Amino acid sequence: MLNDHAHDTDAASPGPTTPVGAVTPDAATSADAASPGPTSPQAGRFKVAILSIAHTHAHAYAAALEARGDVDLVVSDPEGYGEYRTRPGGRLVSSDEEAWNAWPGGPDAVIVTSANAHHRDQVLEAARRGVHVLCEKPLATTVADAEAMVDACREAGVVLMTAFPVHFAPAVEQLRTAVAEGALGQIVGLTGTNNGKLPGGRAWFSDTELSGGGALVDHTVHLAEILDSMFGLPRTVHAVANRILWADTAGEGAETGGLVTLTYDSGMVATIDCSWSQPKDAPTWGGLTLQALGTGGQMHIDAFAQHVGGQGQWHPYGPNYDALLIDAFLDAVRTGEAVEPTGETGLRTVRIVAAAQESVRTGQPVTLEKD
Amino acid sequence: MPHQDPTPSRGPAAALRVGIIGTGGISHQHAPGWLELGVDLHCYSHSGADRFAEQYGATVHGTLDELLAAVDVADVCTPTPAHAEIVHAALDAGVDVVCEKPLTLTAEDSRAVVEHAERAGRHLYPAHVVRYFPQYAAAKKAVENGAVGTPAVLRYERTGAAPGQDWYADDEASGGIIMDQMIHDLDQAIWIAGPVSSVYAQQFAGTGPDLVRTGHVVLTHTGGAISHCRGLWGPPGTAFRYTFDIAGDAGRLQYDSDGDPAVQLDAVASARSQGDGGYLPDVSSMRSPYTEEILEFTAAITSGAPTRVSAADGAYVVEVSRAALESLRTGRSIPC
C-alpha cells in the first residue's frame, strides 16, 4: 500500500468533484457495447469495472473514475468488505461475474484491485475477454505469473498497465527530467524510502499466501518503478529483512522491515528502505522519498511532503496521483496503446522483488539476467 | 562493549603532558580541548609542527621518541596508515593514547594495539567523535530509555565534500570512504543495535583526485536489526550533512542536521559568509564534540572515569569496516 491517505476517500480528495446528479450512468448509450475484442471508445463514456476492493486503493480509483464524469463504473466486492458506497456514476455488485456481465458487451476496461495472489487470474480473464486492464501493484506474486499476464495481454492486444500512482508525482517527474538532462551530472547513488504503517483493515497484506510476502513485496516496487523509469534493470539485487516491527500483528512469515540494494552496470548503487516503519500513531500513513546523488550535485524528492501540518496534524494537498494514473489509463484505453507504467514495467519490478526474496533466503546478492 | 579496567590514574589534568602527533587538519579540532584542560602541550609532525606550536603554545620535538619521552598522553592525529606503529611506540614508552579513528587500517593491527594496551596497562581511546555529537548522544540515551522499543531498521547518512588531501583518495592508505567517513555511522549502528553477523557493501568510486564517491553498507545485527549506512564524498561545495533514522517496534527517532539549525541565515546573509562546503561538519552551534571527547578521555586517564567508547569498540568497527571492504572486493555478503 502506498498512498493510503486522504486520497482514498472522495470527501478529502483534492481532485475535481462531480456535482451530485451530473452523471447519469447509462450503459445503453455506448454504441459499441456489443462489439467483441478490445474496445476503444473514441468518444462518449467509458465502461469500467473495478474487480474487488480487497486492496483499499480501489476506493481512490473509484473516486477518481467517478469524478471524471465520463465513466460508467461497476465495483465488485466478492469478499464482502461492504465499504464501497455507490455514488453518481457507480454501482456495486457482489461478484466479478456480475461485473463482467454488467454491460451487454462487457466493460471497456477493468481495474484489478484484489489481493496480490489473485491478480493473475483476473488479468488473464481480462485478456481472454479482450478487455484493457490496469492492475494494482505488485503486478503479481511470482515472476512466472507476471510473465503470463504480460504475454496474455500482448497476445490479446489489450492494454496492460500497472498501478504506480507515484509515477505521476510532479516531484518524480522533475527528478526524471533532471536525470535525463544530466542536470545532476552522472548519478552515482540513490537512497529511496517507502515507509508506511502496517497496512490496516486488511489482514491479507501480511498473509503471505495472498500477498506474496510482507514489506519487501508491498513497498519495494514503487521505488523500483521510479528507478526503472530512469535507469532500467539493475545488475544485482541484495536484500536483508526482519520481523521486529508489528511483530504481534503482522501475518506469520511476513517481513516488516527490509533494505534492498541494487547495483547497475554504470557502478551506480541504490538502496530502497521498504520497511513498514511508520509508527502507529503518526499523523499520516507514511511516505516516499528518493535522493539522487550525482557528480553535479544532489536532488532529494519527497512525493508526499505537501501538507499543512501541526501538532499531530497532516492535511495533504497537491495533485491527486491516483486521478492522474486513472486519466493516463483511460487515455490508453481510448488509443489502445499502453503508456508507462506498463505491464512490462510491472514485470521488471516483480523480478526485483523476487530477486530480493531470493537474496534474503540465500544471504547473497542475486544477479539479474538481462532480457 | 565493556572497556578494559582503568589503569593507574595520572592525577590532575592540568599537570598532564600531552603530545600531539601529526599536526594536520584534525589536530586543530583536538587542540582546543587540550587547551581548555590547561595541559602542557607538545607536538611532533613531519610538517607544520612549528606553526602548530606557535598557534597553541606547544613544545616541538624533533623525533617521535623524543616526544614520547616527554609526555604522559599521546594524541595520534596522523594519517591512518601510521596509527598502528605510533600507538605501539607510545604504549612501549608507557604513554596513554588517544588515537583518531579508524584505530588502525586492519582488524589484525587493531586487535594488536588493543592487546598491547591491555598488556601494558595503559589507556587507549579511539576518537569516535560522533558518539560525542549531542544529537547522537541524545539518540543513544533515548534508545536506552526505550524510546523506540527494540530497534529494527536503522539508516545513517553522512555527506561532505571530497577531502582534498591525496591520501584520502588512496583506498590503501585511508580505507576509502567506508573506512574513513562511514566508519562513524557503522560505529553508531553498532552502538545502537549491537554487533553484526553480516556485512554487504557497494560503492561508486571514480578514480583520480576530487572525484565523487558514494558508499552503501548494509549490516545485519546479531540481535535482528538491519542497518543501512550511506556515505558521500561530493563535488566541491557539497555542504556537510548528517542524518539518522532509528525505527523500532515502539517508536522512531529521526534527525537531519539540515533540519534543525539553531541559527539560520537568509540567502543574502549566507551569500556574504559563503563557506565552500566541507569535509568536516560545522560544530559552531554546539559545544565542540572534539572537546567533549578529549575531556572524557582525560577524565578516564586522570581519575578512572568511564568512557562511552573503548579501544575494543574501535577495533570492532575496524573489523566490520574491513568486512565491508571485503564485500566490495568480492561482491558477496561477508559474515562477521
Q: How many runs of DSSP E, i.e. beta strands of chain A? A: 15
Chains forming the largest contact: A-B, 39 and 39 residues
Strand order within the widest beta sheet of chain A: 12-11-7-10-9-8-15
Please write the string of helix (H) and strand (E) elements of chain A: EHEEHEHEHEHEHHHEEEEEEEHHE
Name the overall outline of chain B. Answer: globular
Principal-axes geometry of chain A comes out as globular
Radius of gyration of chain A equals 20 Å
Integer average pLDDT of chain A? 89
Percentage of residues assigned to helices of chain B: 25-40%
Uncertain residue ranges of chain B: none
The residue ranges of chain A in which pLDDT falls below 50 over 5 or more consecutive positions are 1-37
Say what the CATH topology of the largest domain in chain B is. Dihydrodipicolinate Reductase, domain 2
Name of the CATH homologous superfamily of the largest domain in chain A:
Dihydrodipicolinate Reductase, domain 2
The overall strand count of chain B is 13
Mean pLDDT of chain B: 91
Strand order of the largest sheet of chain B: 12-11-7-10-9-8-13
CATH topology of the largest domain in chain A: Dihydrodipicolinate Reductase, domain 2
Output the structural class of chain B. Answer: alpha/beta
As for the number of domains of chain A, it is 2
Based on the structure given, which CATH architecture of the largest domain in chain A is correct?
2-Layer Sandwich
Walk me through the structure.
The complex is a heterodimer of chains A (371) and B (336). The longest helix of chain A is centred in the C-terminal third of the chain and has 20 residues, at 343-362. In chain A, 29% of the residues lie in helices and 22% in strands. Chain A has 2 domains: 6-163, NAD(P)-binding Rossmann-like Domain (Rossmann fold), CATH 3.40.50.720; 170-318 and 348-367, Dihydrodipicolinate Reductase, domain 2 (2-Layer Sandwich), CATH 3.30.360.10. Chain A has a 7-stranded mixed β-sheet. Chain A has a 6-stranded parallel β-sheet with strand order 3-2-1-4-5-6, sandwiched between helices. A two-stranded antiparallel ribbon of chain A has the order 13-14. With 371 residues, chain A is an alpha/beta fold. Chain A contains 10 helices and 15 strands. The radius of gyration of chain A is 20 Å and the shape is globular. With 336 residues, chain B is an alpha/beta fold. Chain B has 2 domains: 13-129 and 290-309, Rossmann fold, CATH 3.40.50.720; 134-282, Dihydrodipicolinate Reductase, domain 2 (2-Layer Sandwich), CATH 3.30.360.10. Chain B has helices at residues 27-37, 49-56, 64-70, 83-92, 107-120, 134-144, 166-169, 171-174, 176-193, 267-272, 289-303, 311-330, and strands spanning 17-21, 40-44, 59-60, 73-76, 96-100, 124-127, 151-161, 196-205, 213-221, 226-234, 241-248, 251-256, 334-335. In chain B, helix 1 crosses helix 11, helix 4 (83-92) packs parallel to helix 5 (107-120) and helix 5 (107-120) runs antiparallel to helix 12. The radius of gyration of chain B is 19 Å and the shape is globular. The model of chain B has no long low-confidence stretch (mean pLDDT 91). At the A-B interface, strand 7, strand 8, strand 9 and strand 10 of A face strand 7, strand 8, strand 9 and strand 10 of B.
